[in-house]
Amino acid sequence: HHILKFVLSCAGGNGMLTPRTMTSIAPSKGLSNEPGQNSCFLNSALQVLWHLDIFRRSFRQLTTHKCMEDSCIFCALKSIFAQFQYSSEKVLPSDALRSALAKTFQDEQRFQLGIMDDAAECFENILMRIHFHIAEETKEDICTARHCIPHQKFAMTLFEQCVCSSCGASSDPLPFIQMVHYISTTSLCNQAVKMLETREKATPGMFGELLRNASMGDLRSCPSQCGQQLRMARVLLNSPEIITIGLVWDSEQSDLAEDVIHTLGTCLRLGDLFYRVTEEKARQSELYLVGMVCYYGKHYSTFFFQTKIRRWMYFDDAHVKEVYGAVLVVGHTDNINQLTVYLIYYL
Ligand SMILES: *[C@@H]1O[C@H](CO)[C@@H](O)[C@H](O)[C@H]1NC(C)=O
Ligand SMILES: [Zn+2]
Ligand SMILES: [Zn+2]
Ligand SMILES: [Zn+2]
């Protein structure tokens, strides 16, 4: 078998690489996952939240919340964050959060103890629960609470519409909010192949546009039936500071994994990612890749760029490693039909 390599080309000249003075920080910690617990999906989501500077700092400032006692995700998250910061242990248990999550989602039968679940959905749901704990009075789809980190920093406020270039007719705009921007890997690879047919070489700078082209969806008929075939266009109405992209493995084909990895870019312009971006601030935004959650061999692990020490770290439950050099070994490609990658971009 050969080993799938993922090259992270952190281009110079961006803000991420300017040296900073070292500040004393608690070294990264692992999260335990005993046999039968199947907590790797939660551990990955948790490492992402802890390592995202914007989240960690804003969450620290939140104090009051609607408490749900022993099923309180807010309290469980506060507690594990305190341990991340002050504990002298190298490996922490994520059991309290696991249990609060299981109790909270008992009715839906999601995230139950001992059962494997999806890291991106866990991440999204933790964010939505934080909204519930601190801004419950405002509805999820129109939350404007300034202290609501999930909606202020993570949420993408979008509308979807198709407009006919031939007759000018348009479909009713469909507004929605998403915490994770999901894209099919099959579609991403098809777009990458098309792109390579018309260009000499792919550059990482094209990644945003490639994602946009890949998320356009299927052709549909013009709303006024003029005969034109159109695609849905997505318009971004806000300026999120963190963008999470979920690459969804939707085919059984195994030979795309390497292609997907090769299309990944480390810099993302919001203006490229959507058909139209209404806010000037968002149009100017360039975000840098800071984290990656990989699903491989029915197991989640996480890569994260630690801004304070300016190094990539690898988190596999209890194990934490520093990643040296620019080549990350993601996994063996024996039977790689399930490499799901979540990318987290940061302003
Ligand atoms: C995206 O699609 C447009 C229209 O089909 C095409 O002109 C452009 O080259 C594509 N971009 C990339 C990066 O593939
Ligand atoms: Zn509480
Ligand atoms: Zn909110
Ligand atoms: Zn038309």
Structure description:
This protein is α+β, with helices and mostly antiparallel strands. The protein is built from 11 helices and 18 strands. The protein has helices at residues 40-51, 53-61, 73-86, 95-104, 119-135, 149-154, 185-198, 207-214, 257-263, 270-273, 280-284, and strands at 3-7, 30-31, 91-92, 156-161, 174-178, 181-184, 220-221, 229-230, 233-236, 242-248, 267-269, 276-277, 286-295, 300-306, 311-316, 319-323, 327-332, 340-346. Strands 6, 10, 11, 13, 14, 15, 16 and 18 form an 8-stranded mixed beta sheet that branches. The protein has a 4-stranded mixed beta sheet with strand order 5-4-9-12. A two-stranded antiparallel sheet has the order 1-17. Helix 1 packs across helix 5, helix 3 (73-86) runs antiparallel to helix 4 and helix 7 crosses helix 8. GO terms for molecular function: cysteine-type deubiquitinase activity. This is USP domain-containing protein. Belongs to the peptidase C19 family. Residues 29-347 form the USP domain.
